[in-house]
Write a structure and sequence with these properties.
With 300 residues, the chain is mainly alpha-helical. The chain has one domain (3-258). It contains 14 helices and two strands, in the order H-H-H-H-H-E-E-H-H-H-H-H-H-H-H-H. It has helices at residues 3-6, 10-29, 31-57, 64-76, 83-96, 110-122, 137-153, 157-177, 180-183, 191-201, 213-234, 239-260, 277-290, 293-299; strands spanning 101-102, 105-106. A two-stranded antiparallel ribbon has the order 1-2.
Length: 300
């Protein structure tokens, strides 16, 4: 596949969009500050995934999936973390894809799994700087426009609406019946930007999210409700990612259950003739049996 054709695919377009967001975010956060983490995350992910793909497929491929995982890891981790934290997190993301699988698809979103796992090792900060929280309000429009474009291209509008709808409905309900100050920060940067980035670029991950619209609504609602619960009950910094991992488990179960369901074959049930045809069929059958083979041959 040529580069021009690749960058017209959803994966190629996502790389371009994330590249635009990284460039814009780096201008606000500081190019020198974010570059070590971005380079370490991407390089580590691709260097690990390339030989694994070669081993599995028998030939070399550009590890574009690893590039995306490394980018997302770097865009979520605080740029004040040492570069090796981003490298280790990306390595965990790639290595988690291969043992944690159901049939042909990995169970967990690699970046989400790695960010939660390494939090307990490095106690990492997650600033979501790649979601443009430090720029002007016009940057929010860029985030929404690029996110909506990708969401439409991968046909995941329903899952985004289900997540954002359930998540912010619960937050709003809490503000009315509880303490508004407890959830007020979720409507402001960086939490608002993080939720939008998360919805557009992680909840919609094609390998770990359902393709059918009905299943997308359930999946998105699971992410929204569980993310809110992790925030309200645990106060964990990775509350959004926790919601996604729970939904990943549900989707893996759904796919496995669907694959195990026996397909109904065309011959599994007898097809009876329609009303009025049954007696005609019996008449034709009886007339055919009444003649000897010689008589039937003579008629032919």
């Amino acid at each position: 596949m040529t580069a021009g054709r690749f960058f017209r695919t959803p994966k190629g377009l996502l790389i371009l969009v994330l590249g635009v967001l990284v460039a814009a975010a780096a201008a606000g956060t500081g190019v020198a500050l974010v570059t070590p983490g971005v380079v370490a995350a991407i390089a580590t992910a691709m260097m690990i995934d390339a030989p694994l793909i070669r081993w599995r497929r028998g030939r070399w491929h550009v590890p574009d999936g690893a590039l995306l995982s490394g980018l997302i890891v770097a865009m979520i981790l605080s740029p004040h973390q040492p570069w090796y934290v981003a490298a280790v997190t990306s390595a965990v993301a790639i290595l988690s894809k291969y043992p944690l699988r159901v049939r042909t698809a990995n169970i967990f979103n690699p970046a989400a799994f790695a960010l939660v796992a390494t939090f307990y090792v490095f106690h990492t900060g997650q600033s979501w700087w790649g979601a443009l929280p430090e720029l002007s309000p016009f940057a929010l429009a860029l985030l929404i426009a690029t996110g909506a474009f990708i969401t439409h291209r991968v046909n995941k509008v329903q899952v985004v609406l289900a997540f954002l709808g359930s998540y912010y409905a619960l937050i709003t309900l809490t503000a009315f019946v509880g303490n508004p100050a407890h959830v007020a920060e979720l409507y402001r940067a960086p939490d608002l930007h993080a939720a939008l980035f998360f919805a557009f670029f992680m909840v919609t991950d094609p390998p770990t999210s359902p393709p059918k619209h009905r299943d997308q609504l359930i999946y998105g609602a699971i992410v929204g409700v569980t993310s809110y619960a992790a925030y309200a009950l645990l106060g964990a910094v990775y509350f959004l990612l926790a919601g996604l991992l729970v939904a990943n488990v549900w989707e893996a179960w759904r796919r496995n259950a669907t694959a195990r369901r026996p397909a109904r074959s065309a011959t599994s049930e007898p097809v009876l003739p329609r009303s009025g045809e049954f007696s005609q069929s019996l008449d034709r059958l009886s007339r055919g049996r009444s003649r000897s083979p010689i008589e039937r041959g003579h008629q032919r």
